[in-house]
Please model this.
Amino acid sequence: MKFLIILLISNSLMASTEVEDAKRSIQELIRPLIAGASKTRPKGTEKFRVDGCDKTKINWMNVLTMKEEASVTYKFKDGCDIQGTIKPKVFQTFPASLDLRNIQSYSKVESQNKITAMLEAKPILNLEMRAGHLTGKNAKVKFEADYRVQLNPMNKNPVEKNLGGELRITEINGKKASIKQKILVQ
Model:
């Protein structure tokens, strides 16, 4: 009986660890997509860094008004633990496929993304991540996420305020999940 209780407790702790690992990792992956990287780090992602990634200056107002396209390329180097190219488009779905290192059990993230905007005096930029897959040698997480930021096109750093979003994990290592968590990049 003691063995059965220990087995049940260890399995529930392991499942909890997988869930927390997935949540922390996905939140950390959203950071590079939000201008002005965060100074706080979720526990377990301390080694994962994007502060050394090349900063691509994007004129988001021109992208939003469809006057120009943008392309962001990341390469592994000291302080940059993502690699790949993203070509964000507004009001159209675009793919993202990035190789990862130094982030928990994962080595790749893929998703279908869409950027929309509410054009006001201070526009609201919405990022929708759909059909997300965070994968590693022995780990796979399916997720969706939404995130919003308020822009101020007159500022040097156009992201005036992070409005937050929601992360939804639908599957972990082949097991269905229904996990929702509010997220806010500080």
